[in-house]
Amino acid sequence: MSLSPAAQQFLKGAKDGLPFHIVIWPFAAIFGAIATQAGLNVVEVMGFSILVIAGSAQLAALQLMTENAPTLIVLATALAVNLRMGMYSAAITPHLGKSSLLTRAFAAYMLYDQPYALSTIKFEKEPNLSLSEKLGYFFGAAIPIAIAWYALTLGGALLGEKIPTDIGVDFAVPVTFLALVAPMLKTPAHLASALTSGVLVLVLGFMPYGSGLLIAAAAALVVGAQVEIWMEKRKAAT
């Protein structure tokens, strides 16, 4: 029995996402272990992972919680880390936006770094894919990674202190993130925004509770928008 085109794309998405499991598995397990060591119970840890499903924001929020940072700072920092999801949504809407409301809602929940990066590259290379094929590929890339994230977070939470939390995943995760984001920095606005955020995060590292990240994120958005406006005006003038 032959698979439908959408099912074939689902399998391709799952296959393309396999390399990311190398980082996701230990990262999720370490997050679960750190969270339980910080005082969260298993239900709270799993609620955190299932509802937020964003490792970098989860770790940033957890670190601030252990430092007894004000709730507003915790929420604002997690939001700042995840502001990129809004840009992801705007970028992928032309491809998936015609699907049903329920499908779009589930796609929005599953829209995180890895499936976004893989799908963006796929859709650019194969612009003639149908909506069902695009959805198949997107969910094929997203769902297996999400399931692995849930499962390994649970494993880490249950094992707790038996899992070492200093095995270098804190280095592997940002490197993986850079590998995802770097190919997308194609315009002056993207480059200006990335440079602004990177420089300001380093300069403002002295600020309490990582609040320098909030300023860096806001400044990067403003700079990126201004460069984009400048580029549009330049095109109109030529």
From TrEMBL:
The lineage of its organism: Bacteria, Pseudomonadati, Pseudomonadota, Alphaproteobacteria, Rhodobacterales. Belongs to the AzlC family. Pfam families: AzlC (PF03591). The keyword Protein biosynthesis does not apply. It is a multi-pass membrane protein. The chain crosses the membrane at residues 20-40, 46-65, 72-92, 137-160, 167-185, 197-225. This is Putative branched-subunit amino acid permease. Keywords: Cell membrane, Membrane, Transmembrane, Transmembrane helix, Transport. One of its GO terms (cellular component) is plasma membrane. InterPro entries: Brnchd-chn_aa_trnsp_permease. It comes from the Bacteria. One of its GO terms (biological process) is L-valine transmembrane transport. Coiled coil: none annotated. It is found in: Cell membrane.
